[in-house]
Amino acid sequence: MQNLYLMVVICASLLGCSATNENENRDKDEDLAKLYQSNTLHGHVEKLVRQLLSTSQPFDSSANIAVGTILPAKHNSGQQLPAHASLGLQIQESVMTFVTQAGLSVVEYKTMPSININNQADEMLSRNIKELADSISVDYFLTGTYTLQESSTLVNIRLIKIPENTVLAAATDYVPNDAMWSATKVTIKNNQIYRNGY
Fold this sequence. Notes:
Blueprint: H1 2-38, H2 41-54, E1 64-67, E2 71-72, H3 85-101, E3 105-106, E4 111-117, E5 122-125, E6 140-148, E7 152-161, E8 166-176, E9 186-189, E10 192-195
Parallel strand pairs: 1-3, 1-6, 2-6
Antiparallel strand pairs: 4-5, 6-7, 7-8, 9-10
Helix pairs in contact: 2-3
């Protein structure tokens, strides 16, 4: 009888340890997932949009907003920094996602009047001005700039009321470069070599 009692106690202890380890492992996995998500470009843009909306002056949230491409800033000399088109476009797409999810009315001004069906894809968006509507109705622009730095990218966005061109909100964040592309030992930026490690 004592042996049976001892076996039950040992089994219960082992099951308790197993459940505790499973809970700890699940918590660690969730923490790692959150950490990974927060260090993605999309995660940093979410933080940027939250900052923008939480510090904004009052505005009509049912009015139409056009989200523009986030463009490279310029040097004091007026010379433009090297453009990373995919970076500015991806920030724009993420901003559009989060602003829409926040319940604001986003105008997709790149929508064509009809679907262009071809062998490769069914196209509904275009950047060709001849394929787009002659005019759009918007009340606010949401746009910004980015500046490449050695280990991070400085991203600024702002909400502008038109036609007054009044800035109602602005936000800034430093996005680590490894959130956008993997770190390498040697990189070339602005026609200069940067060594990150050996």
